[in-house]
Amino acid sequence: MTTGASRAAESGAAESRATGSGATESGAAESRATGSGATESGAAESRGDELRTAEFRAATAEETRTLGARLSALLGPGDLVVLSGPLGAGKTTLVQGLAEGLKVRGPITSPTFVIARVHPSLSGGPALVHVDAYRLGGFVEVDDLDLDASLEESVTVVEWGEGLVEGLSEDRLEVHIERGAEDEERLVRLSGVGPRWSAVSLA
């Protein structure tokens, strides 16, 4: 899922307590079960001048997809999403959920050998441009993809894009995925960078 401006963490002395969903509240922000079954954990949202963060836990691959569908509601034309995490962390699984929420034509598979795929909308919304930068050697190869040509009217999601595509826009949503303790458990951290995300609640 590079950093934006300086991060200011929001904390409080509120007592940690169990919610009705079984998740726990910690610090000043609630940790609560989402509609997807994925749960927000720790301080649900940190605010800075140009960066906001939130963390989620998905117990299964299906919950990761559903979290992606939920995140799609935050996205619109011109948005850049940068996905990072180790091999097999579930980046493409999350994109499948994003695609479902955006209602674009599938199937959504890892574009490693194609590098970039455009998935047109089936509902009059923005297209999804799905990029895998794993095999790209640097900025020149990124530039050759001409992602900026479609950036304004599409939602652009770049797997393995950390350190390569930040120059495409001053605004981006960074998504970092890590494996959890269980086989399919994933920890997902969102970081909104730039003015576009300064007033958006990621929780």
Describe this structure in a few short sentences.
Residues 1-45 have a biased composition (Low complexity). This protein has helices at 61-71, 91-102, 139-144, 148-151, and strands spanning 17-18, 24-25, 39-40, 46-47, 51-58, 80-84, 116-119, 127-132, 154-159, 172-179, 186-193.
Give a description of the structure.
- InterPro entries: P-loop_NTPase, T6A_TsaE.
- Residues 1-51 are annotated as: Disordered.
- The chain is an alpha/beta fold and 203 residues long.
- It has a domain at 60-189: Rossmann fold (3-Layer(aba) Sandwich), CATH 3.40.50.300.
- 16% of the residues lie in helices and 26% in strands.
- The protein is built from 4 helices and 11 strands, in the order βββββαβαββααβββ.
- Strands 3, 4, 5, 6, 7, 8, 9, 10 and 11 form a 9-stranded mixed beta sheet that branches.
- Helix 1 crosses helix 2.
- The longest helix has 12 residues, at 91-102.
- 39% of the residues are buried.
- Residues 1-36 and 41-45 have low confidence and may be disordered.
